Amino acid sequence: MxxxxxxxxxxxxxxxIEKEVEKKIEMLKTIFEPIMKCDVTLSYRRFHNKLGHYQAxxxxxxxxxxxxxxxISNNRTVRGIYIAVRDAFTTAEHLLKKRIQHLRHFKHDGIxxxxxxL
Length: 118
Prior knowledge:
Blueprint: E1 3-9, H1 15-31, E2 37-45, E3 53-61, E4 68-74, H2 80-108
Parallel strand pairs: 1-2
Antiparallel strand pairs: 2-3, 3-4
């Protein structure tokens, strides 16, 4: 069963951002259908006497494989959370495609402990 979770830390919950994240999760699932779970944490961290920064963290669980973790920070103040989400999903897509290539390489070489869903 595929489960997704969007968590807001030190940020007000935004239905708009949550819908955008869900769209991006669905886009990742079109690249690799067996994604079991995708947890996204959006946060704002403020430092003493400095502007804070927005952070998007994505945890992707794939059957029989190590999880893919992607963390992106953005210190822009106006649209920072949107940029952090965009950049995090772009990086997650890149990492997921690299993982797929890696799995296909092992499957092609005859290694048998690779997920049979490819």
